[in-house]
Design a protein that fits this description.
This protein is an alpha/beta fold. 40% of the residues lie in helices and 18% in strands. The protein folds into two domains: 1-32; 53-185, Glutaredoxin (3-Layer(aba) Sandwich). The model has no long low-confidence stretch (mean pLDDT 89).
Length: 188
């Protein structure tokens, strides 16, 4: 066999190995994703996420702000180190949006008192709601079947779930890029 044929064979083997690895990763991820709890309607991409209701840190149940606008909803907890690191990033993105941009909303999946104590140390300018972390919380309803944090979704002005993101954003520019991509690919 000639040297170039050996290299070609090695290249084919490498590509086939990578493809197998990607496929297996998808299969393992699917196997680790639990089914939705019985009776819980999980919103699929493109479906309506309405009604978007939440409980403020003061215990008031109310609709989430930003109806008719794009809404970025971030699920977090003060006991989650990546969430803690991401909070200033979300706040920077929020401030860059102004009054007519994307409405940023935080939902602490923990006791409201714990979220309030954290926010006294790390204040943010966007609305924060709280609810217990459970297998039926609103992050699960919006597609977070594995219950991992931080988890972020984007809701379009018509109230449809158009994007999901599992992991912290490194900076406000990354959030902006993700939002722009989701808007470009959202159903019309």
């Amino acid at each position: 066999m000639k040297p170039w044929q050996q290299w070609a064979l090695i290249g084919v083997f490498a590509v086939a190995s990578a493809a197998l690895g990607i496929w297996l990763r998808g299969e393992f991820d699917a196997a680790r994703t639990p089914p939705a709890p019985e009776g819980l309607k999980v919103v699929a991409l493109g479906e309506s996420a309405e009604p978007l209701l939440g409980t403020t840190l003061d215990g008031v149940n109310q609709p989430m702000p930003g109806e008719g606008r794009w809404r970025l909803i971030n699920f977090w907890a003060s006991w989650c180190p990546p969430c803690v690191e991401e909070m200033p990033v979300l706040d920077a993105y929020h401030h860059a949006q102004g009054t007519d941009g994307v409405q940023v909303i935080g939902i602490a999946l923990e006791d409201a008192a714990d979220a309030r104590a954290f926010l006294e140390r790390v204040p943010v300018g966007f609305p924060i709601f709280a609810e217990p972390n459970s297998t039926r919380d609103s992050s699960v309803r919006l597609g977070n079947a594995r219950g991992l944090l931080p988890y972020t979704v984007l809701i379009d002005p018509q109230g449809r779930l158009v994007a999901q993101h599992l992991s912290p954003f490194p900076d406000a520019e990354a959030i902006g890029g993700w939002v722009d991509d989701a808007k470009a690919n959202a159903p019309r």
